[in-house]
Amino acid sequence: MLTGMTALQKELQKEFEKFVDKEIIPYADQFDEQGEIPRDMIGRFAQQGYLGAMIPEKYQGAGMDPVTFGLLCEEIGRGSISLLSLLTVHGMVAQAIEKWGSEIQKQTWLPKLAKGEVIGAFGLSEPDVGSDPKSVESIATVEDVFFRLNGHKKWISYGQMADIFLIIAQCGARPAAFLVTRDTPGFEVEPIQGMLGFRSAMLAQLHLTNCLIAQENLIGKIGFGFTHVAGTALDYGRYCIAWGCVGLGKACLEACLRYTGKRKQFGALLRKHQLIQHMIADMITEVKAARMLCLDAAYLKSAGDPETIMETSIAKYYASTMAFRAANHAVQIHGANGCCHEYPVQRFFRDAKITEIIEGSSQIQQIIIARHGYQNYLFGEKNK
Amino acid sequence: MPKENEQKLRDFFAKFIEEDVDNDTDIFGSGLINSLFAMQLVLFIEKEFHLKVEHDDLDIENFKSIHAITNFIQTKQSIKEPASK
User: Which residues contact A231 (CB under 8 A, 6 or more apart)?
Assistant: First the structure.
């Protein structure tokens, strides 16, 4: 039970839960095995308004507040966090445009993104650039009224399906962000197969060879592509995944509660064994703790408080590590059954590992959190 | 008011940045800004000074130092309330 939620938020939470139970959970393992989601899933998301969840209503989005959006992410994460990553990357593009796009760019792209007429993906990572994104090697050069873009992006979620890509590149050694449409000459998409987890996230490599990008597709200004445009997108991404991990942890817990209530060993249901109870108790406590961290970030986000950036980082770090611990327990409790495709906990385990890597690895979050902790402490000391 | 705003900004920087930052420190050129701090700074300016930082404001001249940010805030506020001031 969450404290402080409005009646509308509670009502919407029920609605999200029903949607996930009906439209996602029965198919999530199939999506995982097939390594893709059907295109009509996009239509169902769009119909519910989920693709434009945080896009303002004036651009035909649902205009959800951060708490409501968090609850949506939690529920979808409960069904399939791999599928949630569609909302993550699509929303990262929308948020970047909404915050830093010109009015014309907003009017051009946001209604299409909200209605699912175009799907967005975020192009930052490269074969040799992961945790140090300032070092992206993709290059944009100014050419007459165009930018000429050359580069190679990797691990791009929903890259196989997306229609527009927010590509981060260096322009005269200054980072810049460009919207690149899939049909741009010189732009090629190469699917990535055989991932450990997030198998239905349709990952791809992107090859950009002499792509000519119109000036009006520059988002923000040159020099602000990483700190501001990508920064906005990444904060949204961390927020979305943090909440999704709460859902993933909850899915692990629910699977274990069901399983331990049915299976007997040594003449007693598993739930009667104290070492099982130990794991269940940890899962219950940690899911709740992760949700509280996410809610804290949500309320700060609603208030426009700068502390939300760090609280989101903390929430993402804790929730993703919690999800992996919960998934680890879930597989352990299910034993051999947990290692088999007949039970979803093997998918939860594989997907949970990915959440500790994407949108800033756990180690990057630890560095950020510790640095902030020292700085806050030193600032407090200075002001005593 | 600009002096007061400069102090607020200096306090904010001290809370998030380890290095000493005075009014004219080149915060972009000295590599003090990462994406997390950039977003914190935008949110701080918006919340503290009741304005919105948008596409047209993305000019390095507006953000290169505390002094520049103070001028930017003053300009934005004067645009917002031209008649009464």
Answer: B35, B36, B38, B39
Residues forming a β-bridge with A176: A169
Q: Where are the domains of chain A?
A: 7-119, 121-222, 226-376
Catalytic residue set of A? 359
Domain range A121-222, its CATH number among 2.60.40.1510, 2.40.50.870, 2.40.110.10, 3.20.20.70: 2.40.110.10
Domain A7-119 annotated CATH 1.10.540.10: yes
Q: Do B58 and A102 touch (CB under 8 A)?
A: no
ipTM of the complex in this document: 0.91
Which residue of chain B has the CA closest to A104? B55
Instruction: Please judge whether A220 and B16 are an interchain contact, meaning their C-beta atoms are less than 8 angstroms apart.
Output: no
**Rounded Cα–Cα distance for residues A231 and A217 (Å):** 18
- Write out pLDDT tens, residues A75-125: 999 999 999 999 999 999 999 999 999 999 999 999 999 999 999 999 999
pLDDT digits (tens, 9 = 90+) for B21-43: 888 888 877 777 888 999 999 99
Residues 6+ apart with CB under 8 A from A335: none
B39 to A382: CB separation less than 8 angstroms, yes or no: no
pTM score? 0.96
